[in-house]
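Here is a protein:
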Amino acid sequence: MLAQLAAITGSEFDHERAKVAIQNARQTADDPLSQLVSAAAEVYMRVSPIRQPLAEVIWQAHHDTPVVIWHAVESRWIVITFAGWFRLRIAEGEHPEQRLSISRTELVRMLGLNRIDETVEAGIVHPERPAHGMSSHSGHHATEHDHISPVRRFFGLLKAEKQDIRTLLIFSIFAGILYLAAPLAVDAVVSNLAFGGQQQPYVQALIVLSIALFACLALQAIVTGFQYYISDIIQRRIFVRTASDLAYRLPRVKAEALDDVHAPELVNRFLDVVTVQKSTALLLLDGVNLAFSTLIGMLLLAFFHPVLLLFTGVMLVLIVLIIWLLGRGAVDTSIEESRMKYDLVNWYEEIAHFPFLFKGPGGYGMAYDRANQLASDYVSARSRHFRVLMRQIAGLLTLQVFAAAALLVVGGWLVISQQITLGQLVASELIMTTIVASLSKLGKKLEAWYDAMAAMDKLGHVVDLEIEREDGEQPTRREGGAEIIAKGLSFGYAVDAPLFDGRSFTIRPGARAAVVGPHGSGASSLLDILFGLRQPTGGFVSIDGLDLRSWYLEALREQVQLLRRDEIVDATVIENLRLGRPDIGMDEIRQALTRVGLLDDLLHRPDGLNLRLKIGGAPLSGNQRTRLLLARALVQRPRLLLIDELLDGLDNASFAQLSAAILDPSLPWTVVLTTRDHDVTRSCDQIIEISPCRLTDGTSSISETQRIESN
């Protein structure tokens, strides 16, 4: 079933991974739909369960979205791949092309229902990584250009749209054929005039030709309208698939992949999806129509006379040479131009991020001078790219001039020698005029292509960020706090510069442990390891007896929560507490806010708990933000709570209230916090002391103290 859905949605599929996913799903869910939802999540698909009348379920498939329905009688899944106005297509077998067409009435009988408005349980299937076709799959350093080519990325992105693109190409061929109606009609009219046709029959023929021409051009207009509609559908899908893909990837990016980049600036590259949309539409509409119209027009010229066949052949060869030879280096210079643009955007972001810094001595000048230099670099890069583009445009314009003049000479000679008719000459000139006009516009299409390649390169920097592993075990959630055992634990950001090295410690279930040490000692990095963000360079850590490397990270983070300052998103207070968990009720939220002393402050505001917060927590004060984060932990109820210096620097009253709320021994969790505050340390019953490694003698860096007795 999973293989079938992966084939239909175009998702990646790993049989071994699917087997593990099915085993885990059977342990955590009972009914078939819940098992499918759980298993699909581990193989890059999302199944959204719904309970609706069958008629509404079928409507979901109108949007080319697969829908699965459990057939309880036959104990099997029925997959609706598409719903038309009269017929449905359901999948047969694992291959996506194996489809069975049935009516709605037949589906009702197949499911053993009486009416189409009876309620059924179903699932809407979406790929988790719908833009994986443009990813290198292996990841790379986000500032280098050693990833796969933009051309491969572009066609990988469009692979999911092949059915609509195929339809659009058929329409383009049809429109190109209809386009010939005008020159053929002119040929007929001129030929009749040249041979001196009688007035009455000629008028009748002219009326018939005019009606036929009108019908052909009207049909061409209708076909072109359908092309625009299909193109717009493709544009929407490109945007949605890229947005969905990044929404899946970004929360799962490895911490190491972001160590050397400015993540917010890097994500700005998503905006290049708009360039991809517009360029794709231009290429699929004007570019494809231009190509087919040119080819069909040249083919018609070839039918007029063999000399014209040779003429069109030479034209095609020259067009290919101009595009290929004169355009060498165009993609690279376009990518360089795009990179310079983002360098300038990055500088503006820095100015906006540190506004007070640039208000100081020399700040105005520094902001302007750096922006001026980056703008100058962009102009230079743009000039280099335009030189390549101008070579192609000059070549095409030159070809345009010579082609128009040459056809007149060749066609005139053929008419004089009575090898073609005058009407064929006029038709040939009309066709060549259209082709020549198309050549003059080809430069714009080439620029759109290069812009699309630069945009794909920039999107590639985001989708190629290496994501965390997505395999592992999902142990059953235990009661009470988690147990942590570390053996020979070592970690460092560089191999030759460890932060701590080779020590062991144990944190029993329900303990309140403080990790203490000077700045740069690695205390925060230890929390990263416990949260699964980073891997130790030596030794191992186990949680509840299972090696951290064997945990399925999503399952781990359902039981472990990490709190750091100002990790508040642009959303309401309620949304910041729930973090996407609708099962958390308002009673729990109010109790948690009361416990941390924040409820009354929020209720006195006009919007109450619906107060919308900015990124970082504004308009709340620093103290209120700390309380909000701790309230989040209370409603999320993890078994292991990691707090990174959140309790440091509080006034005595706030610390007394918040430490009682979080470190209360009756709460069923284990707390590990980093601190340099002695009051916080005294509130804990276990100390893990970290001191910087001394590389000269490789001495130990972690020592453990059980319970600090207060004086």
User: Anything to note?
Assistant: The two ends are 65 Å apart (CA to CA). The chain has three domains: 2-128, 134-463, 484-706. DSSP finds 23 helices and 18 strands in the chain. The chain has a mean pLDDT of 84.
